[in-house]
Design brief:
344 residues; alpha+beta; OB fold (Dihydrolipoamide Acetyltransferase, E2P); six-stranded antiparallel beta barrel; 5 helices
Length: 344
């Protein structure tokens, strides 16, 4: 008898589940009539894990959780004593190389040329004196009044003086020509190296400061002053609040009746008396199965297209992750001048 009751109860239970599923599906579908479509989704969570592009101890964190920040605002800073010294060293090396290049481009000074000419005159005078001494000694040798060794010595001195005069003459010519073009180009190349080194040092110095990439809200303060950080170590979590959009899913059968730019109305359970203007900004080109986390089991096997519905959120009442309902009219005509943005 008990077995019969159990066998009778099982089919009834299965039938009840089927009926409830049908009723639920009818209740979901009846929210959309032939001219309107209701979609369910969530405000997309958009966050960034902010980290330094450097390895050092945290010197200061200037924001707290919940603070609203603007784009470009300084959020945190590392210790920069070592980086400051590297920048100063690079600046000094650059300045020294600039002076080297300026000296080469300026060429020889007039005073240097005058000095060279004076040295050449003195060298020629010494060469002439040595030559005259050799000639006199050569005459004395013929009269056997000087030894051959003395004559040879004076001849050598004359030749050395003549060679020195020739050397000074060529040095003066080079002095008048100025530095070689190759030396100037090498100095310019070295200057470019110094400039790149300074730029790199300043970039490393700038990497010790963490700025907000966009306006938003600090959701999490992960590290504190004194903590050691590395390039992959998050310091802060920044939630992006503008713009906000709803991630919903459009049934494949209605794909041809909804186009980017159509106007939508957004409601939330948190503010049931408020409605927010929106518009369809993007429809995925790729079909997918309905995500199991946002739909009933009966809809999981249906093909859908991801839709991004932008929302006007002037008072920031729509929070990231909040479930919302999107209502839009089907077969809307999108005007060319339709403004897909929020009113200022």
């Amino acid at each position: 008898m008990i077995k019969k009751k159990i066998m009778l109860f099982v089919p009834l239970a299965v039938l009840s589940v089927v009926l409830l599923s049908i009723l639920f599906w009818w209740d979901v579908d009846r929210t959309s009539d032939e001219s309107n479509l209701v979609l369910y989704g969530n405000i997309e969570i958009r966050e960034a894990q902010l980290a330094f592009n450097a390895s050092e101890h945290v010197a200061a964190v200037f924001v707290q959780e919940g603070d609203r920040v603007a784009q470009g605002q300084l959020l945190a800073r590392l210790h920069t004593a070592l980086l400051d010294a590297q920048v100063a060293e690079a600046e000094a090396a650059l300045q020294a190389q600039q002076h080297v290049l300026a000296r080469l481009e300026a060429g020889s000074r007039a005073e240097e040329i005058y000095k060279g000419e004076s040295e050449l005159r003195a060298a020629r005078a010494r060469a002439k004196s040595a030559s005259d001494s050799y000639k006199r000694m050569a005459k004395l040798l013929k009269e056997k009044l000087a030894s051959p060794e003395d004559v040879e010595k004076t001849r050598s001195l004359a030749e050395v003086a003549e060679a020195q005069a020739a050397s000074i003459k060529h040095s003066l010519a080079l002095l008048k020509l100025g530095p070689r073009k190759e030396d100037i180009e090498a100095a310019r190349a070295q200057l470019a190296v110094r400039e790149a080194s300074l730029k790199l040092a300043r970039l490393r110095q700038e990497d010790a400061r963490l700025y907000a990439p966009a306006k938003g809200v600090i959701r999490n303060r992960i590290l504190e002053p004194g903590d050691m950080v590395f390039p992959q170590t998050p310091v802060l979590t920044l939630a992006f609040m503008d713009p906000v959009w709803v991630r919903a899913y459009l049934p494949e059968t209605l794909l041809g009746r909804v186009k980017p730019g159509v106007v939508a109305t957004i409601h939330s359970d948190s503010y049931p008396d408020r409605q927010y203007k929106g518009w369809v900004g993007y429809i995925s080109p790729t079909a997918e199965f309905t995500p199991k986390t946002v739909q009933t089991p009966a809809l999981r096997t249906r093909l859908v297209y991801s839709v991004r519905v932008f929302a006007c959120n002037p008072e920031e009442q729509l929070r990231l992750g909040m479930p919302v309902t999107v209502t839009l009219a089907l077969d809307q005509v999108v005007a060319a001048d339709q403004a897909n943005h929020c009113e200022p």
